[in-house]
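hey so u asked for the seq, here:
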Amino acid sequence: MIQFELADDSPVYVISVAAQMSGLHAQTLRTYDRLGLVSPGRAAGGGRRYSLRDILALREVQRLSKEGVSPRGIKRILELEDEQERHRVLLAELHAEITQLRTELEDAPLSAQPADQAHAGGTGPTSADSSRAAKF
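ran it, structure tokens below
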């Protein structure tokens, strides 16, 4: 059995197959494409090629349409869902980066200042500075 990921964006299904998979008529798919609701990829000859993601989007458009949402409303909902997904991915990437930076920071050795430089010329911390720091 072939396994597909929901994120499969490969445009492989011709319009008749996509119509069958989505439970819609091929003309409805053409209308959705013309309205910009679901825009499939194109083959070299110009024919529409739908991905699994497109099929799922077609089903969502059909569901929203049955609930009485206008085509303009459907388009806006799909745009907001796409934006939310992009933000979710970005947040996950930033979280991973923060985790990596924390690990690097925890693993980094503390740089020690040489004792002769710390007390030379009164530029280093004094015992009074150390006792003040300990209070915080």
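The chain has one domain: 1-107. The domain at 1-107 is CATH 1.10.1660.10 (Multidrug-efflux Transporter Regulator; Chain: A; Domain 2).
lmk if thats what u needed
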